[in-house]
Amino acid sequence: MRLIIFIGMLCWMVAGTVSAQTLDSPDGNLKLNFRLLDDGTPVYSLQYKGKDVIKESKMGFRIRPSYVFNKDFTITDTRFSESDTTWKPVLGENSEIRDNHKEMFVALQQNGTGWLLNIRFRLFNDGLGFRYEFPVQKELRNFTLDGETTEFRLTGDHKAFWLPGDYDTNEYPTTVSKLSEVASLTEKVRQEPLAAKAFTPGLAVQTPLMLKSADGLYINIHEAALVNYPAMCLDLDDKAFVLTSHLTPDRNGARGFIQTGSVTPWRTVVVSDDARDILASNLILNLNEPCKLADTSWIHPVKYVGVWWEYFTGQGSTWAYTNNQDIVIGETDYTKEKPNGTHGANTAHVKEYIDFAAKHGFDGVLVEGWNEGWEANFAYIKEHIYDFDKPYPDFDVEELHRYAAERGVKIIMHHETTSSVADYERQMEDAFRFMADNGYDAVKTGYVGPIIPRSEYHDGQWMVNHYLRVAKTAARYKVMVNSHEAVRPTGLCRTYPNWFAQESARGTEFESFNGNTLEHTTILPFTRLMGGPMDYTPGIFEGDLSVYGSNKAKLSTTLVKQLALYVTMYSPLQMAADLYQNYEKYPDAFQFIKDVAADWDNTYILEAEPGDYITIARKAKGKNEWYIGGITDENAREAVIDLSFLPEGKKYEATIYADGKKADWRTNPKDYVISTKKVTRKTVLKQRLAPSGGVAISIREL
């Protein structure tokens, strides 16, 4: 009897060894473990320098109507490989990126059904990526997901930087709390007035989710290469501290329509014991496919000004041409309508911005409100809201094209859909053809309000596919895309580099509504920007909007912090967002915005702590120029800026834009001092930052 038990135990141990696999990162700091539980459930775990990051967590799916596709598996094949290559992004924070990872591929077959499922893991020095792959098979072809059961089982009650789960918006302010406190805070956060909201049922948070453990680990959970699949939120068990994948459904509850031969997005876990490594990570970009555009010569960084901020200041400028809200697109003759006298996108006013852009070396002028339809832009109620190739009578397309071209400036098109996406899709080819015919090479798209088709959410599979259709269509017309109110990015700017910026978070415009927190921009690089560049629209110099009239809002930063954001908030699309008259009042401070680059050879993360402070240095692409931005939260601090990234044997001059001695975001935000200093790579600068203040530095070789 004892012999039989011993043999049985030996067989169990051998079977367990066969089904369990491990993978180490190239530097050996990260270890991935994968195995099947006794019931055939796939589970994985992740350690960093011997510490648990993700405890053993389940994987798999539920398939409609009631099929379980997360247990009863057998491993049929396991393969290992590794790769160490470099690639060059078209635009980016670094001119060259290293992709060094080890890979484990596991093939599974479900007992009973015979269905096949593959899981591919990639382990980098900065974290883990894994995805599911649905191979072509006889027994399973097209199916509907009821859910994904991927877990991230955490080790404790981590500090979290979170947004509440929502299918329609990423524009909530970030809340900082323990995971155990999320439930008590969620209802208050959801009261934030936003254009569209669709709460997840139950307790959930959005990705990218930034976490900090009590034992000093920084953990970021997100996804990469979101293609033909719904975006992921994370259900939160705030007692066991387990996060579970929550896919955005359509309004019928379907969470993805899948055909075998396809793959899911990568689930990503970036981890380090140094917060700077989180910001330096290229893991999400590395998990995206290489560029699919044969010719990228027309894609370039853009610094722009525009007819935009005046709509938010309270001084009366409007997007609409008339006050008649009974217009009908295609029927109303705007030449017979009475102008309201407040329309901002008129030919004479746009020429003022073109002149300003040309004088100060800006590439583009954004013009919002140029096209018919703004009088009756009722979201979700009305389907045919705008024409995307019909300008208002006071916006002379041909004249402005000529005027801008003569001055070396491009006008940036604006396609606000008010989320009538079905109508935008019908007009999209005509809209981009109109752009190509009239010299526009960049467009800002917008999706304010609930989505039409009325069965869809902003972050569902259908809309994920739409955003990519826009990028692909734009590429055929050699147009760069900056999408606002779209699904949060997942690194697709590598594959489609003409999709060169997004908003998809709470941007500067909220400074004119109910404000941004003082720590807001010290958090965004750890959350929203993990997936790709953000059109944050910084550069507001006049922060007291009461000077314009009815708006009583005040900016949450000093003027110098606004300068620093051009470095800390990466984007190849950067706006000088204020009214041009305010830059003319402060030409010495404006010089930094004129000088700072928007595309980079190298990036150096000098200091970082999420929610507290960030200091970043970057080298301008193809130039011996470096720019530094440092920002802080509500607490004044001393930034320690080590210049050892500078090349040896050279001398440099640093121009330092600093908060003045009396600077304070509340009482004296425009107190600043500009000085110059000779520096070398041995120099360490120590610079005081005011409450919600910053420092901006430009360095040139002597």
Automatic annotation (TrEMBL):
Residue intervals of the Glycosyl-hydrolase 97 N-terminal domain: 23-290
GO molecular function: hydrolase activity
Name this protein carries in UniProt: Glycoside hydrolase family 97 protein
Cofactor requirement: Ca(2+)
Signal peptide: 1-20
InterPro entries per record: Aldolase_TIM, GH, GH-type_carb-bd, GH97_C, GH97_catalytic, GH97_N, Glycosyl_hydrolase_97
Calcium listed as a keyword: yes
Self-association and partners: Monomer.
The UniProt record lists the keyword Iron-sulfur: no
All copies of domain Glycosyl-hydrolase 97 catalytic, residue ranges: 308-505
Coiled-coil segments: none
Domain of life: Bacteria
Gene3D superfamilies registered for this protein in UniProt: 2.70.98.10, Aldolase class I
